[in-house]
Write a structure and sequence with these properties.
The chain is α+β, with helices and mostly antiparallel strands and 169 residues long. Helix content is 30%, strand content 28%.
Length: 169
């Protein structure tokens, strides 16, 4: 599968071997990781992807992606889908950046591209959530076009829907 490219970022779909290195926090000679990558959330996301692969097979293009800066090719975070779409063409997303990459609009830029990609692949709804006190993540999802739909004592839940699928599922 090809990388997804934005103005400042490359969203690189992780292979199983790449995800294993991220999950272990152990780069290969060819990996270009910014200091602090992978963060705990990146390792958790890579493990989720690996578990999905082991149970149902590689869900790509609905898998895990590494967020890389175009300017230097360094990985600064991750995002992706929590698995293949369900029967209603719904997916759940997650994302995160290392602290040195936060506050630059990278997360919103990456999420907008992932949402555009999902819609082009026939997805009709994307869900995401964030801890109640994670105001930055609330802003990211809102900036990417997702709307707050509910909250509980721990999380705020966001969603974007499109009335009809516009691509190939």
């Amino acid at each position: 599968m090809d990388d997804l490219v934005t103005e400042r970022l490359v969203l690189h779909p992780l292979s199983v071997l790449e995800a294993e290195r991220v999950a272990a926090g152990e780069p290969d000679d060819g990996d270009r990781w910014a200091p602090g990558y992978p963060a705990d959330g990146d390792m958790v996301g890579a493990r989720r992807f690996l578990t999905t692969c082991a149970i149902t097979g590689d869900p790509q293009p609905f898998g895990a992606y590494e967020i890389r800066r175009r300017e230097d090719g360094r990985a600064v975070g991750g995002l992706g889908f929590h698995g293949a779409p369900d029967e209603d063409r719904t997916v759940t997303i997650g994302y995160g950046l290392i602290p040195s990459a936060q506050g630059r609009g990278y997360a919103s830029e990456a999420l907008r591209e992932l949402l555009r990609f999902a819609r082009s692949r026939g997805i009709t709804r994307v869900d995401g959530d964030a801890d109640l006190d994670n105001v930055a993540s609330h802003h990211v999802m809102s900036a990417a076009g997702m709307r707050l739909v509910s909250e509980d004592e721990e999380l705020k839940y966001y969603r974007i829907t499109w009335p009809e699928a516009s691509g190939v599922f």
